[in-house]
Fold this sequence. Notes:
361 residues, 14 helices
Amino acid sequence: xxxxxxxxxxxxxxxxxDQLAEPFHFGQWARLALLALATGELSSGSGCGNxxxxxxxxxxxxxxxxxxxxxxxxxIDPALIATLLMVVLAGGLVLLLxxxxxxxxxxxxxxxxxxxxxxxxxxxxxxRWQRPGLSYFGxxxxxxxxSLTVAAxxxxxxLLPILATLKNHRQPGxxxxxxxxxxxxxxxxxxxxxTLINVLAKDFVVPLMAVEDMGVIDAWRRLLALMKxxxxxYAGYIGMKIVLAxxxxxxxxxxxxxxxxxLIIPVGVVVAGVVIVGKAGGLSLNAFTITAAIVAAVIVxxxxxxxxxxxxxxxxxxxxxxxxxxxxxxFPALHARLYPPAPAPPPLPPQMxxxxxxxxx
Length: 361
């Protein structure tokens, strides 16, 4: 009988310890941190993603005695602001597409690294998994477009009465807020469904594609056929993964916050110093200073993100391993990869034939 989602927890813990600590390799740990960032694994497995999202708000801004928001915007050409907004929006869309593409390929690289308990150089893995990653990228892109379309269909009808009320310079009444409750519930259900689809894809569809070299549609068909035979087992896996994610959020959220403080404090001091010196020197906002500030912020966030990812590498290994050991009980080809047969014992040396006694003369 296949092991349940509870039975494989200890096996996944042992796998994580073997890969990361026996023996410890700094290079492998560093590469796994990059894969964790690229795949977004940290946001689904621990509180590390929460630390990254809250990082900008953790840098205490100087008091209004030094910077007045109205002074920051005063004197800036509106055309410059509009141009910057267009650049940010267009750049954000391009970066989102690039990230989905990178995440699709690195998802296979992370799977392979956890399966073999060894993370190859990233260039080697990139070349090896580019073809299935491209197929997975197309599916993720189609899912994203479909999700945004459905979300717009669900959300816009609820938004139109509010916009009409605001256009007539009236305050939204309680009847509008009450009308939003069913739409909000429906939107929440839809968000849960999309999240569940993404979890099933990265935990089970990717292993099917990687191990049996099948396309993403065929992998989904195979997964749905497997789930049809054991729906309660897969439901138990999802529930247990939520429980484990909550526990990891507490432990690694604290560790990530401690690690973040080592960067937040000096960055906050530097920001305050730059603002004070710039204020005293009459430095004004223009295209150069705004660009420099954006570049500096991107560098700080990148360093911060990698630092948190480095701390949370055990999470990035444990949750893929947990999915593998659960799925291997239902997917024989993956089971054979996780539990290879013991090597055959070496052949015994040839034995000399017994000596023939010499006849007496």
